[in-house]
Amino acid sequence: MKFSTSSRHLSQIQAGWINDKMPDNSTLSEEFSTLPISIPPLPSYPVHATHYVYLRRNAPKIATPNDSRSLYLANVPADSTEAHFRALFANLVGAGRFESITFEQDKKDNKISHEPAQAERLAKHHKKRKREDEELQHRKEEAAAELPDTWTRILHRSGSSAVALLADEKSVNVVLKAVKKLQKSKKYPIWGEGVKGGVPGFGAQWLKAHNKLSYPGNDAVQAIVDAYFTVFNRKEEEAQQLAKRLRNEPDEDGFVMVTRGGRSAPARRDEAEEAKQRMLDKQQKKKDETQDFYRFQLRERRKAEQMELLKKFDEDRRKVQAMKEKRGKFRPEA
């Protein structure tokens, strides 16, 4: 459906996540394929529109084992969920090929750190191995200390991206071929059709749920606070014990780290001597590696070696001559 200029501007204002006009292909990279999605009209916005998602093979700067079977999606709809894309790919290539999707904002970790200042600083110097059951218990405590979500459904930033993980590399090829066929058939998949899993809706109910989740009650808040300070105090105690052990342990350079509270005893002499020797060896190795870095230094070194050889040759020749003169002329016996 084609819009007039005024209606198109109105659609962009009222529903900023809908692109009703396909951008010029000259502005897009040739690697991307265009996936048109039909957006059905809503009671609050009774206009049919088309949204365009751009996808290509995933090729991040840092390669991962799943790059060959994943797709990079750009300009995903603002109300996207995993259920929406599962239904979308099932409509394109059938069920069983889509596994999961990671949205752009999912990669950002906005969780509050439970690390006390002292524990966070000392953790860089020491890593403590924990038993599996102890580690599991600590994870449960940290999970209980996290603040609950206040939204039943998250809206994505306009024009954000995502990475879809498919079953195998063959599924990626099948999806790309199916997207190319859409340009000829003009039968675009409908956004939200076949979505399963009880995805929360928007509107007034969405805002009411947010208002309710923002005020969980005194008992729930008190339980979160108690769990947070339990984790905080445990890590603070671990940091104090670690600081006490580090008072008498020299580092690789032979120095003892000064921690809060001072040292109770000097470091062992043999350990300090070994660390000092390692430091000297390290400095000598670094000095050797930096020698002859420039070409003129290499020429000077070779010239010095040649002069040293000539000097030794002259010395040896004079020694031989002196020995001959001292011994006199050789006369064989008759």
UniProtKB/TrEMBL annotation:
Residues 107-141, 261-292 are annotated as: Disordered. The lineage of its organism: Eukaryota, Fungi, Dikarya, Ascomycota, Pezizomycotina. InterPro entries: RRM_Rrp7, RRP7, RRP7_C. PANTHER family: RIBOSOMAL RNA PROCESSING PROTEIN 7-RELATED, RIBOSOMAL RNA-PROCESSING PROTEIN 7 HOMOLOG A-RELATED. This is RRM domain-containing protein. GO terms for cellular component: CURI complex; UTP-C complex. Gene3D superfamilies: 6.10.250.1770. Residues 107-122, 131-141, 267-292 have a biased composition (Basic and acidic residues). Belongs to the RRP7 family. Residues 213-333 form the Ribosomal RNA-processing protein 7 C-terminal domain.
